[in-house]
C-alpha cells in the first residue's frame, strides 16, 4: 500500500448563507435550530486542517438564497483538467449549478454539460482507475454513460438503497488508489458483490460510524479528515496505517453534509492528481 500523501487542490464555499430551510434528505429538519455562525467556524477549521496538510483551498463566493451551496462536492466533477457541470434533482439547489459552472470556466477547465441529473462528486468518486458512480436517489443512472464518455475511465454503477445515505460520498470513502472504506448495507446486493471484487481489502464501516457521516471523509492517501464523532472508523483507519484528523461539522450535518460534501477535488491532470 502506498501511504504517500498527495498535495491536493480543493474548492470550498463558505457557509455564509447556510440554513436548513427545506428537506430534501432525511437529515434535514427545517424546524430544528441551526447556528450559522457556528457552521462558519466549523467550516473555517476544516479549511485550516487542509491548509496545515499542505493542500491548496480555492473558494467560490457563496450566494444568498442557496443554503446548500456550502456543499461544494455537488458543484461538479473535475478530473484531468475536465470539468463536468451538474444538474440537481431538486429545484431548491438548481441555481447552484450555473454558479459552479462559471467558476470552473473562469478557472480554465474544459467544460462539459450534464444531460441528466448529476450531483457531481457527491455521487461520482475516482478510485484508482475506476469512476464509482452512485445512483438510486440523486444522480441518474443515465448520467453514468456520459461520465464514461467524457472522462474515459470505466464507470462502475453503485446502487444506493438507504435514503440516509443518499449520495455515494455518504456511504463510501476513497482512501487511496487501492482502497476504499464503505458501509455495505448502504448498497444493493449486486453493488456489494462488485465492491468486494474490486476492493477485497476495503474497510467495512459500522452503521454507528456511518450514522454520524463518518464515511463523508477526505483522504490524501495518508491523512484522513473525517467527522470527529466517527471514533470507531478512525480507529479502524489508524490500524491500517492512516493518520486520522477528526473535525466537528455538527451544524452542517443538520443538512446531511460532512467534510467531503464541503470539499470538491480539482484534478488538473494525471501527473498532478
Ligand atoms: N442538503 C444537501 C442535499 O441534500 C446536502 C448535500 C451533501 N453533499 C454531499 N456531497 N453528500 O443535497
Describe the overall structure.
This protein has 273 residues and is α/β, with parallel strands linked by helices. 24% of the residues lie in helices and 20% in strands. It has 7 helices and 15 strands. The strands form 5 sheets. It has a 3-stranded mixed beta sheet, covered by helices on one side. Strands 3-4-5 form a 3-stranded mixed beta sheet, sandwiched between helices. A 3-stranded mixed beta sheet has the order 6-7-8, with helices on both faces. Strand 9 (172-174) and strand 10 (180-182) form a beta hairpin. It is globular and about 45 Å long. Arginine is lined by residues 24-25, 28, 68, 71, 73-74, 93, 122, 167, 169-170, 255-257, 261. It comes from Micromonospora qiuiae. Belongs to the DDAH family. InterPro entries: DDAH-like (IPR033199). Keywords: Hydrolase. This is Amidinotransferase.
Please, what is the average pLDDT?
A: 96
List ligands, each type once. arginine
Helix fraction, binned, reads: 10-25%
Low-confidence stretches: none
**Structure summary, number of beta strands:** 15
- Label the overall shape: globular
Instruction: Tell me the span between the first and last alpha carbons.
Output: 18 Å
Strand content: 15-25%
Please trace the helix and strand order, writing H or E for each element.
EHEEEHEEEHEEEHEHEEHEHE
Q: How is the biggest beta sheet arranged?
A: 3 strands, mixed
Q: What's the number of helices?
A: 7
Oligomer: single chain
Protein name: Amidinotransferase
Family: Belongs to the DDAH family.
InterPro entries: DDAH-like (IPR033199)
Pfam family, one: DDAH_eukar
Amino acid at each position: 500500500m502506498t501511504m504517500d500523501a498527495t498535495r491536493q487542490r480543493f474548492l470550498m464555499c463558505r457557509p455564509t448563507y447556510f440554513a436548513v430551510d427545506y428537506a430534501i434528505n432525511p437529515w434535514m429538519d427545517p424546524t430544528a435550530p441551526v447556528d450559522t455562525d457556528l457552521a462558519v467556524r466549523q467550516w473555517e477549521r476544516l479549511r485550516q486542517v487542509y491548509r496545515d496538510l499542505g493542500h491548496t483551498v480555492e473558494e467560490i463566493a457563496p450566494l444568498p438564497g442557496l443554503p446548500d451551496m456550502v456543499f461544494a462536492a455537488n458543484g461538479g466533477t473535475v478530473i484531468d483538467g475536465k470539468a463536468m457541470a451538474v444538474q440537481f434533482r431538486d429545484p431548491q439547489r438548481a441555481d447552484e449549478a450555473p454558479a459552479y459552472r462559471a467558476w470552473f470556466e473562469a478557472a480554465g477547465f474544459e467544460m462539459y454539460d450534464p444531460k441528466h441529473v448529476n450531483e457531481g462528486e457527491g455521487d461520482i468518486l475516482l478510485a484508482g482507475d475506476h469512476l464509482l458512480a452512485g445512483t438510486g436517489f440523486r444522480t441518474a443512472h443515465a448520467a453514468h454513460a456520459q461520465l464514461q464518455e467524457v472522462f474515459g475511465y470505466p464507470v462502475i454503477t453503485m446502487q444506493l438503497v438507504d435514503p440516509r445515505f443518499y449520495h455515494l460520498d455518504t456511504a463510501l470513502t476513497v482512501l487511496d488508489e487501492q482502497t476504499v472504506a464503505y458501509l455495505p448495507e448502504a448498497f444493493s446486493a449486486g453493488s456489494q458483490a462488485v465492491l468486494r471484487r474490486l476492493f477485497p481489502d476495503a474497510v467495512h464501516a459500522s452503521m454507528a460510524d456511518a450514522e454520524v457521516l463518518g464515511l463523508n471523509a477526505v483522504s490524501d492517501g495518508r491523512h484522513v479528515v473525517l467527522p470527529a464523532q466517527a471514533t470507531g472508523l478512525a480507529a479502524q483507519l489508524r490500524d491500517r496505517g492512516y493518520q486520522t484528523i477528526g473535525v466537528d461539522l455538527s451544524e452542517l450535518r443538520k443538512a446531511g453534509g460532512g467534510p467531503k460534501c464541503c470539499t470538491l477535488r480539482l484534478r488538473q491532470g494525471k501527473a498532478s492528481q
